[in-house]
Structures are given as C-alpha cells and as structure tokens.
Amino acid sequence: MAIITTHDSGAPVRITVEGSMTIYEAAEHKAELLAVLGDATVLELDLGEVDEADTAGLQLLLLARREAARAGKTLRVVRLGPALAEVLDRWGLRGDFTDAPPH
Amino acid sequence: MNLEPAPHTFIAESRELLRDMETALLTLEQSPPDPEAINAVFRAMHTIKGSSGVFGFDAIVEFTHAMESVTEEIRAGRLAVDEVLVALLLACGDHVASLIDCLDADDRLARLEAARPAGADLLQQLACYGEPGGAGQAPATDPAQPPAADGVASESWHVSARFAPDVLRHGMDPLSFLRYLSSIGQVETVVAVWDAMPGAASMDPEACYIGFELQLSGGLGRQEIEAAFEFVRDDSSIVILAPHAALPEYAALLHERAEPELGAALVQCHALTPDELAQALALSKAGGRGTPASAATRDGAPAAPQVAGPDAARARGPAEARSVRVHAGKLDDLITLVGELVIASAGVSLGAQRTQDGELREATASMNRLVEEVRDAALSLRMVPIRETFTRFNRVVHDLGRDLGKEVELLISGAETELDKSLVEKLSDPLMHLVRNALDHGIESPDKRLLRGKPARGRVQLHAYHETGSIVIEVADDGGGLDRDRILERALERGLLQAGQPLSERDVYQLIMEPGFSTAQEVTSVSGRGIGMDVVRRNIDGLRGTIAIDSVPGEGTSVALRVPLTLAIIEGFLVGVGPSTYVIPLKMVVECLELSAEDRARVRESGYVNLRGEVLPLLRLRELFDVSGEPGRRENVVVVNYGGQRAGFVVDALLGEFQTVIKPLGRLFDRLNGVSGSTILGSGEVALILDVPGLVHRMLQADAPRQPRDGRAQAGPEHNGVERSV
Predict the structure, then answer these.
(1) In chain B, at which end, N or C, are there fewer CB atoms within 10 A of the end residue's CB?
(2) Which residue in chain A has the smallest CA separation from B198?
(3) B372 and B309 in one domain?
(4) What is the pLDDT of residues B496-515, one digit of tens each?
(5) Out of B189, B206, B269, closest to residue A23 by CB
(6) ipTM of model
(7) CATH classification of the domain holding B277
(8) How many Å apart are CA A20 and CA A60, to the nearest integer?
(9) Whole domain around residue B581: which residue ranges?
(10) What is the pTM of this model?
C-alpha cells in the first residue's frame, strides 16, 4: 500500500505516500487522494518517503492542491523526498510547495 | 500501458538518417566539397545525438557527439575530406547503427553499455580530427543573431511547449526535455503552465496537461534546441523564439495559444517585461489574423511556423513532409477488410440480379466499381519505391570494390518504381547475391579491362521498371560475360546435361542457377562457392517470379528478375469440377488438352497419358477433392510444369484466365494438402487455389510404382486430341 492515511481526532488528516508517484500508480493515487480530501478539512501530505516521481505524479499534487483550495480546505506538504523535490525543481514549482522542509 | 512507441519512432528515424548519411558520405567521396552532402551528414549526427540525449542513451550521445564535432570541422572548411576520413565516418556510422540495433531489445540500456567499448577505437581516431570540445559546446551552429529593431530585451532563447495528452502513456515524460535542456544550456527560468487540467472528476491521471515556458541561455543554436524535440513535435506544439525575438513573434505565440494565463507566465519567466507584454497583447489582438500562426489551435496543434519554418523543413527533407508513417499491421488490416468488402459487395450484386429492380442493379453496379477502386487503392498503399533498396548497394559496391581491388561505379535508374513493401524485403537478399556476383565474377580487374580496351572503372547497373503487373529489376554489369563453354562443360561433368543435347543461349545460362553450380576458377571471400544463384532462384520462385539471364562474351551480363507487383494478387487459370471452381497459378500452366471419350476409359485405368511420347501422370481433381456427381460429357487436362516436372490435372471445364486477390486460409486449414489459398469469385463463391508444387510432388511419389519401367508410355493412349495453348 503506497498511501497511508492516519486519523487522529481533532488533528489534521495526514497522508503518507511511499514508494513511487509515477504514471503507473497515478490512477490509484488519484482515487485515494480525492477520497481522503473529501473527508478532511485540513490535510497534511507526507512525501518524505517518495523515492520515484514523474510528471504524472506531479500533476496529481497540483490537482490535489487545486481541489483543496476550491473546497476551502487546507493542504500542506510536510515532507518532500529528494526524487519529488527534483521534479518540482525542474518544473519550477518547488516554491509552490515550500511549506515542506527538505528531507 | 505501452511505453514502446517513442523509442520505435526514434529507432526507425535514426536508421533512415543513417542511410541518408551513408549516401551522403559516398557522394562526398566522389565530390568532396559538396556542401549538401556535408550538411546531410551533420544533420544526421546532430538529430540522433539530440534525440538520444532526450531518451538518455548516453553511449549514442557520446559517439554521435564526436562525429558531429568532426563534421562540424568539415563544414567550417577547417578539415578536408579524403578517402580515409570517409572510410572512418562510414565505419562510425556502422557503429552508431549497431548501437541503435541494441535499442530493439528489452534490456536496451544494458546492451548499449555492452556495445560501447566497441567504439573506443573509432572515438580515438575521431579525436585526431575533431577539436576537443567540438560542436556541442561551441555556439557554431547558429551565432547569436543581432537584436531585431523591435526585439524584446530577453537575451535568452524562449521555449514554449505544450504536449499532446498521450505523451506520458507513450513513455515520453516532458521532464526529460527539461533535464536535457539543462544539460545543453542553462535553464534560466521555468514556468509550468497547467491551466488546461480539468476538474477532479474528468482529470485523466495518465494524460499530460502540463506544459512549460522556459528561458534558456548558453550560446545555443536553434537546431540544437529543435533536435531535443524532434520526436515529440508531431503531436505536440513547441515554439522556439530566439534571443531578442521580435515582439510580433511573441504576439503570434500569445494568439496561437489563446491561454489567458500565458501572458503572466511569460512575464514570470522573464521572457517579456510587463511593458513588452502589454505591447505584444495589443499586437496579438490587432493583428492576430495577420500572423502566420493564427490557423493553429491550442491542443495538439502542429508546431507553429516559427519551428516548422524553412529551417525545420530543410532539416526534415522534402519526402517526409509529404508522407505519414503508418504501422504496417494497420495496412494489412485495411487490406483484409477491403477483401471482405469485395466479397460482401459480390453478394449484394447477386441479390440485386435476382430482384429485377433496375435502379437497385444500377446502384450495385456503380458500388461494385467503387469497391474495386477501393481495393486497388488499398493495395497501392503498401507500394513503396524501390529506391531505398537500391541506394543501399552504393555502400556494398563501394566496400566490395575496394576489397576486390576493382574500381566499380553503381548506376541506379528507375528507383522511383514502386512495389509491395513485403516484396522489398524478400528481394534484397537475391539482389545482394546478384550484385556481389557481378562485382566478383563479372567485372574484371582494372588491368584486364584496360587490356580489353574497356575503361578501367567497371559499371554495375541497377534498373527497375513496371511491365504488365510485374516489376522487372535488372542487375547488369559491363564485365567479361558468362563463359558459355565452361558452363556447358561443368553441366556435363555434373550430369545436368546429356552430351549433344541442343540448348538455347538462355537455357545454358539458366544452368548456373542449379544448386552447387559454380564456374569460378577460384573461391574468393565474396563468392565462387557455388551457392548464391540457386538461392536467388529459390527466393524468386517463392515470389512467383522468373529470372532471365542475358550475356554477351566480353561485354557483360544482365540478370532480369521479374516479380509480380504484389503477393496479394495472382494471375490464375480457372477450372471447374462439377459445381466447384479451382484456381491454378497461370504461370505454371503449360497447355490444355481435351480428353476424348475413348481416352477417358483407358486413362482411368492407367493414371497417365502419353503426351507426344512422354509419360504425363494425371491427377483427377474430382477424386482428389471428392466432388460428388458424375463427370460431364467432356473432360480436360491442364498440363502444369513445376521445377521441370510435368503433370496433368483432369478437370471438367476450362473457365479461362482470372486475376484475383489471394485470401490466405485460416489457421484451421494450415496443414491442408493440395490447397495453398482461396479467393472469391465475382459470383461471391469461394474458389480454392491449388498448391501445384505440393500436388506435383505428391503425384510423382504416389505414381512412381505404376509407371512403366522403361519410362516410356506404351499402353497409354497416344494422344492426338485438340490442343489449346494458353
């Protein structure tokens, strides 16, 4: 299981993504991310353990962030793995997710 | 998910480029200062290098880079082309081809690395010519242009990229362009543009919605940047603007993309200042229609004219601009479908015939005509010019001539002649044998030629033309010609001939195609082992073709291969047995005889007929295929000839010649004896195509015990019936 969701009453919902965030997992990840997003008001994304990422993975992050904003929810990236950081850098999008301290 | 297509396109196009390069190199050897040829070599290496970089094939990048550097030196006039250099570049091209071959396999990266050391030697030799550093780093290809009068302030190249939705599925991640661009220059700024991404519900997680605006510096040329996008350009939209590009160019970009956020993105990545953006927006609104890019739409638009302009058009060559690459399987499917359509429409017209409805019959008649046209058009889709096959021999003749110490030039004519793609592949082996033979056996050594009063340089000619449903390919040389006496001598030795047997010139020459037949005095590395010509004949037989050899002693030899234009069509001879119809390949039919009533009784007993003093074994198709009913009042014999063996098929009716599309039998009938395919008659009925070689072979084996011992027919009826030649 790549995505682990932790609920603590009152606390933000935390999503931990492990392994790859590539086109191979994109369909599965999209469904799970959106499902969790529907339940929570504050979301924390822990991407520290993502060891492979591509543009499809990046697009999902952009989608999740946009959907959260549209629904008036908060989405924070709390950790960023080096693979994903490189992808964000390449696309000039690192600044958009800098609420996360580097891994 | 399929990640293969992009490398496949890359492989195919790289091979094409390598072939072009080879042709260009050979031209260079003849006329060293030809700038077109030098450019072709440079272009090939440059494009392959750029695309390999995108895919991360480092071994290819490394090697093509070295070649590119050397070519750049030639292009700049700092290095003279000589035979040694051409030979080196040819060898390098071969190495690149072998690296490209590695990509076919699944473990391509491992194979590439394994193949890398093989090029080390060549790299060293290249290094002796090339400047260290070479073209890759030097801004030699496209020196910075002087700022245009109304140019923007930005000193960097601007790259605006939007990708087709399916690039990710095809294994082409836009990330690889970003990575590659930052390896050839400095990416100053990147702004991702992803406003096209739809809402969560309809967003396809495997589609690509993101594009970029990017500023790139580092003394690059347009070609180098374009090369990076070579394989994504067709279905994506890449616009490259030069440093200090004119404002109208940005205006055109804004207009073409028609994205509300694009202006902000251009300012954000420092391509435009806010002032420049305001001017560009005003321009784009005012003169949008006037800009050349206005016709292009946003998604999947063809590359804007800035890219596909004169530069790019020249780079891609004229032929490619006019053609579309289609998977061969799709064409085959289309042709199968058209075959079904022909059958279905035959059924429709049969039905229409029965109705007496004049209008319907007229309509079906014109439909039938159209269907036939569609069939012909579909078959013609698979037709390709023979040029590619021919030009490959430039290299063969060049290398072989050098190995043999002979000077030989290759003349090519009729290269535009078209034939079925599947035939092209099957012809290249036989042609190779013939060309090698011509060089080795045909063309004499320069000294000998001068002695005979011929120019020292020999000539091999490849010529192709169409002739009534066939393509004829001639391989001619101006060498010594075939030695008729020697061939006869060898044929006698090998027992292929009886002494005193009269033979025409052509028949004598046919003898050299017997297995193991060689008149060469010595065996060379190239040919002379007596294998070759029989292989040629077997291959051509397989294509239902013929070979004619002409030779004049001292003046040369010409071999003409005549092959049907397509394997999908057969010239057949229709015969009827009871209610069934069969097709015999016309090429194998020798003559037709009528069996008289009294002959029939005797023939039924003996199973053979005396045809002008020779035993002709007979096969009754009625019995073979178990056709019910009694034979009609008349029976006919179709005499066929395969591989020198004659046999007769007994049939009821002779229905005449018939050109038809062959439909292969399904897998269920794979092992069916005596039938090689089927076809659909105009009536919509199915007719089986007889497998003549198989039937003749079977008959001779089965009939052997029943044949008279002395091999002459004595009891058989002397046949004096009506003879009809076909």
Answers:
(1) N
(2) A63
(3) no
(4) 777 777 777 777 787 777 76
(5) B206
(6) 0.88
(7) 3.30.70
(8) 13
(9) 569-725
(10) 0.47
